[in-house]
Amino acid sequence: MNVTLHPSERLDDLLTHNLRIIQSDEVFSFSLDAVLLARFGAIPAKGRILDLCTGNGAIPLLLTTRTKAHIDGIEIQPRLADMAQRSVELNGLTEQINIIEGDLKSLKLVGDQHLYDAITVNPPYMSVASGDLKENEHKAMARHEIGCTLEDVIAASARLLKVGGKIFMVHRPSRLVDMIALMRTYRLEPKRIRFVHPKAGAEANMVLIEAARNGKPEVRLMPPLIVYNEDNTYCEELMHVYYGAKSELRNE
Fold first, then answer.
1. pLDDT by residue (tens digit) across 77-91?
2. Are 14 and 20 a contacting pair, CB within 8 Å?
3. Of 92, 107, 132, 161, which is most buried by a Cβ count within 10 Å?
4. What pLDDT is attached to residue 192?
């Protein structure tokens, strides 16, 4: 399908299942954390999935290789929401993915039948008080809690998930205590945690966490994911999910 590219935009491969995505150096592009999140956890085979802070739509696109569920993606920045919508059209996925331009804090549903079975989110990692806010507005909002805070994300997830529904999040390990505390405040019980390390012996620089709405207290710490081998090549597990040989990271 043909797609209109705006100035500065380009088409990139998502490296799996022949998916393509519209990107631009002027906005925040998808990276490894989005791939890991889309491949983490037991995504439901059907039902309804919501991707918060969807950006240019990388996670909803990747999720279509794992599920037949309907996927909504919500993005507060009009430019990114438009890029995501055009990428959905480019890949012929308009019947499965719906992009919503809006604020997750005000997203409301009518009736339990419209609640979601699962939520994925790759939120802004840094508080407004940290980091450099001098970059352009698109990158600043993607990296810093300008449009939403971690609490906003968790509160919205608790409001929008079915009882027993799950949230899957990727974040910085330095925010893990905040994540667990807020999740429990909003009755999202952490169930699985997996740390991601750039190399063996290096400190973790990402953490993947799964929580269930109204779940029973019990959390499992999964084996760490080591991204690079000693020769700087991707580890075997990552190669499989990055290039499509497998649809998900190990769950046990």
1. 999 999 999 999 999
2. yes
3. 161
4. 97
Residue 226, token pair as written in the block: 């080591």
Q: How many domains does the chain have?
A: 1
Mean pLDDT for the stretch of residues 63-83: 95
**Is 37 within the bounds of a domain?**
yes
CB of 114 closer than 8 Å to CB of 91: no
Contact indicator for 16, 44 with CB cutoff of 8 Å: no
Give the closest residue to 173 by CA, choosing from 149, 147, 129, 209: 209
Rounded to 5°, angle at Cα 54 from 248 and 75: 165
- In percent, how much of the chain has pLDDT > 70? 87
Range of the domain at 180: 30-242
C-beta of residue 95 within 8 angstroms of C-beta of residue 72: no
Q: How far is C-alpha 141 from the geometric centre of its chain's CA atoms?
A: 15
What distances in angstroms separate CA 234 from CA 38, 128, 194, 214, 229, one per listed residue? 17, 33, 18, 37, 6
